[in-house]
Amino acid sequence: MDYRISHNTLDAEDFIRLFDSAGWGRPDRELVETSLKNSYVTFSVLDGEKVIAMARLIGDGGMAFFLKDLIVAPENQGQGVGKGLVEHIEEFIRGELKEGWWCYFQLMSAKNKDEFYLKCGYKSHPHEHSGHGFTKIIRK
Fold it and tell me: pLDDT band for position 84 (50/70/90)?
């Protein structure tokens, strides 16, 4: 499969479509637009002109980056798209760091997707250096 990855071109429509395809619902458009605007960088994987996968990176540009909302369209899963996107994001982060710097690249796996991240070389929490990851949804 031949695809390309672009930075900061992800729009709310494609985000909502992919988010919904993951079974996570359809978030409010304004909420999505705010989230995209305030992300460190967004990634879109394109097959021709169609966005088939996406991810958002949030972080401080130095010691901490967090992978958010990595989604591959169901019909494109199992084709190496997700793995290629993760590798691209890791290279992007390396490019943001100065020589000798290091950072934590963290994520929260979606349910039943742990094996994918383990295959990509990530450690599950807790492990010898950290405790559990936690999530809390805050609503207004």
Answer: very high
Q: Which run of H or E residues covers position 64?
A: strand 64-72
**Whether 133 contacts 122, CB under 8 Å:** no
| CA end-to-end span of the chain | 43
Fold category of 4-119 in CATH: Aminopeptidase (3.40.630)
- C-alpha of 48 from chain center: 21
Please, are residues 71 and 18 in contact by the beta-carbon 8 Å criterion? yes
Mean pLDDT of the chain: 90
Q: What are phi and psi of 72, to 5 degrees?
A: -110, 130
**Predicted pLDDT at 8:** 98
Residue 37 clears pLDDT 70, i.e. is over it: yes
Nearest to 14 by CA among 38, 32, 41, 31: 32
To the nearest 10°, the Cα dihedral for 16, 52, 91, 61? -10
Beta bridge partners of 36: none
Largest CA distance in the chain: 44
